[in-house]
Amino acid sequence: MKRSVKWALAGLAAVLVIGVSIRTIGMRKAPSTGATAPAAISETVVQLGSADLVVAKPRELTQSLAISGTLKAVDSAAVKARVAGELSGLTVREGDTVTAGQVIGRIDPTEYESRVRQAQEQADSAQAQADVAQRAFDNNKALVDQGFISRTALDTSQSNLNAARSTHRAALAAVEVTRKALNDTVLKSPIAGQVAQRLVQSGERVSIDTRVIEVVDLSKIEVEATLSAADSVAVRVGQRATLQIEGSGVDAATGADRTVTATVARVNPSAQAGSRSVLVYLRLDRSAGFRQGLFAQGRIDVGRNTALALPLSAVRIDKPAPYVQVVTDNRIAHRAVETGQRGNVDGQTMVAVTGITDGTLVVAGTLGPLREGTAVRLPTP
User: Fold this and answer.
1) How many Å from the N-terminal Cα to the C-terminal Cα in the chain?
2) CATH architecture, domain 50-63+305-377
3) Containing H/E element for 37?
4) How do 45-47 and 53-55 pair as beta strands?
5) What mean pLDDT is predicted for residues 322-339?
6) pLDDT at 254 exceeding the cut of 90
7) Helices H, strands E: what count in the chain?
8) Angle (nearest 5°) at CA 42 between 36 and 47
9) pLDDT averaged over every residue in the chain
């Protein structure tokens, strides 16, 4: 038993010696392995394209105001009934073309024809009474000249003649009134254009001033836009505007919405009650193909100003103060700027800035934010 214990202790001692030897050898080899571990870390360089950069320089900014409104025909007219009666012969409908003076319907003339005949009979009777008074006056005048009757009788004859003539003239005026009413039974379009609305149907009885149809002349179209009282101060007759009108389609060459140019034709001198807004009327340079009631929106050019400017998208606002990313010695630096008036240059929104100099190379807004000190590589010329 004692001999087996001795053998066990001897084996344990041998294992400990072998383990210590292996650990020592491993520690000696470690320095040579660790010497090759560190590797150099390369700096990231951002390659910039020509579209990623913009140069700050003086630009002529077009000051403009946003507007919106609806298209309206310059000339439009409502055909109304001028006399009461039953409507007949109304053949035109929405979309039909009419000419100036064209008959579009009639009101039953039976009653008005009778009135004309009645007035004419009364006028003829008054004419006869005037003729009788005239003969009586002539006879009395001859008798006065011969001394058979007094002057008073002649004066009475004169008065009767004057009254008969007045009655005749009144009867003739009544004839004209009834004839006009008869003529008014014929409904005519006052202007050339297209029927926009048909408000009654044949067979209906209409009263005076009942709207029958509405005619619009689409050869001249204008935009009726609303501006605030403050914005309207800058608007003047003759200023130019660029508009987009619903339904005008897309420009095949550019793929953008087709635009239409217009000119400020009139500015309402009074503000609307309640909203305090001011109506502005713009004449379209090309009105063919547009319809009354379409929606239009765009901008009116109200002035021009030259200033050091950048695209609005190049000015960053993700810090408490606006700034731009500039390229200095092939590295990014942030420069605080103050923004001023905005304007349009070739359809792009630009903003006047201070805090940088003319010729400063600025990163465009399409690239996104970069850390200060980021190394960049400029595009080759």
Assistant:
1) 95
2) Beta Barrel (2.40)
3) none
4) unpaired
5) 94
6) no
7) 4, 20
8) 160
9) 86
Place of tokens 């390659």: 47
Question: What's this model's pTM, rounded to 2 decimal places?
Answer: 0.62
Express each pLDDT in 110-127 by its tens digit.
999 999 999 999 999 999
CATH of 68-72+220-302, one of 3.30.450.20, 2.60.120.260, 2.40.30.170, 3.40.50.2300: 2.40.30.170
DSSP 260: E
pLDDT at residue 64, as a whole number? 84
Amino acid in the structure at residue 208:
I
Residue 55's CB is within 10 A of a number of other CB atoms, namely 10
For residue 231, the Cα-to-chain-centroid distance in whole angstroms is 15
Mean pLDDT within 164-176? 94
Single out the residue of 235, 302, 219 nearest to residue 268, CA to CA. 235
Helices (H), 229-329: 229-232
Shortest CA distance to 106 belongs to which of 215, 206, 217?
Answer: 206
